[in-house]
Automatic annotation (TrEMBL):
Name listed for the protein in its UniProt record: N-acetyltransferase
Highest taxon, organism lineage: Bacteria
PROSITE patterns noted in UniProt: GNAT (PS51186)
Domain N-acetyltransferase, residue spans: 2-149
Amino acid sequence: MPQIIHERPEHAEQIEPLLDRCFGPDRFKKTAYKVRENTTPLPELSFVTVEGDKLLATIRYWPILIGDVTPALLLGPIAVEPDLQGKGIGVGLMRETLKIAKALGHRLIVLVGDPEYYSQFGFQNAAVLGFEMPGPVEKRRLLVKEFMPGALKNVSGVISGAPEKSLSPGRIATKAETDKIVASLAAFAPPTDA
Ligand SMILES: CC(C)(COP(=O)(O)OP(=O)(O)OC[C@H]1O[C@@H](n2cnc3c(N)ncnc32)[C@H](O)[C@@H]1OP(=O)(O)O)[C@@H](O)C(=O)NCCC(=O)NCCS
């Protein structure tokens, strides 16, 4: 049965080929990669879905700043093994990791993706709010989700990778605190039909 677990260094050799299969070799030209190039994914929010030794899916979240001042997370990439798409693995990974991001104190999540898929998780258009990416992006695909009403108030501007010192309060959770939050999420289980 598939399980969602924290990404470990040994998963990298399966993650990169999975991303190639899902997004193609040109994926590095995407504007989201430009945002990510000067920062690193948060280990406490990097997860994989595995079944035994086989990696089925990956998701990562990166620290960003909106308009140079507002800390937030950039979600992505999320990718599910092509043969296994449409079985609920993506929804499971989104729901469980968003729950953890919220529990860790994050307030805003940005992503570039299809609104038809991400609206079910509470994402709305960010371009109309004045969000911009530092390169080309389809405006309809620039999305944001707030974890509490009001988190988006007065927030707009260009999205950039966050330097370590400007990370949001949620990022300061220690390893022990993070482990406790993850362990406390009873619903941290894979979809049953995958
Ligand atoms: C997008 C992705 C992560 C979704 O994961 P998944 O496990 O395939 O999706 P789920 O099984 O959880 O959800 C399936 C449902 O979402 C819908 N869906 C999947 N991708 C969609 C998209 N891009 N736009 C609209 N709906 C989409 C399916 O049609 C299906 O709907 P249904 O249940 O009504 O039939 C996965 O398909 C994937 O890796 N795709 C390639 C890489 C990619 O595009 N990543 C996202 C970039 S932001």
